[in-house]
């Protein structure tokens, strides 16, 4: 019997890393998965050579079909500390990685798997897959980010409908409502996501990190706060390592080749800035 790895990370070259939810066939979230996700995100965040990450599921049946319900009995009396706090921490660690994250939704994306998908910046979905938040059918709700990340992406009205009903929707419907960015032909979600990541990874690491954090944090900022943040970040890029190459490439009528590593994060709540 093959060893279950739960989470695996692979260097794909050109500044691209691949994180695989590796518990086939359904790649269910287990308590072990959460611990390994946290560990993997910590290592990835500290690797300055990574400029983009693709997240996918092992096999071709599921990206992640949600939580392993067989663990519910063991955690029910202390579900917050034993499961949900760890789940929220692990999923938020993906969201706060200091570089672009592309989700390759290569199969069923359900419950906690859909919540992982929400933490990705870009979602590319197999045209044959389905996505949804069926937790309500078990008498619970999407308690690891779905209840607040989903409305930020699709708006409150659509979020209410998906969360209240627990209905699964097709990839085409997910694209129509803006839940996923685009569809891939059957079996092509991962190669399409890797190509997207390679294209993005050719960009300047500092600007990519700033865009990532700036867009995310703007959701919790006033306009004045966002302007001040933009001015501070603009100073960083205009005095940073990439602008000379960008300007030289522009006047030289050639593609820019950005080689500077991602900056070392500063300590504190904005450590990915």
What can you tell me about this protein's structure?
This protein is an alpha/beta fold and 273 residues long. The protein has two domains: 6-201, 2-enoyl-CoA Hydratase, Chain A, domain 1 (Alpha-Beta Complex), CATH 3.90.226; 204-273, Orthogonal Bundle (Lyase 2-enoyl-coa Hydratase, Chain  A, domain 2), CATH 1.10.12. Helices cover 44% and strands 17% of the residues. It is built from eleven helices and ten strands. The protein has helices at 31-45, 72-75, 79-95, 112-118, 146-154, 156-165, 171-176, 189-201, 205-218, 223-238, 243-251; strands at residues 6-13, 16-22, 52-57, 62-64, 101-105, 108-110, 122-126, 130-132, 168-170, 182-184. The strands form two sheets. Strands 1-2-3-5-7-10 form a six-stranded mixed sheet, sandwiched between helices. A four-stranded mixed sheet has the order 4-6-8-9. It is globular and about 60 Å long. The mean pLDDT is 94.
Task: Give me the CATH fold name of the largest domain.
Answer: 2-enoyl-CoA Hydratase, Chain A, domain 1
Unreliable runs, pLDDT <50, ≥5 residues? none
- H/I helix tally: 11
Shape: globular
How is the biggest beta sheet arranged? 6 strands, mixed
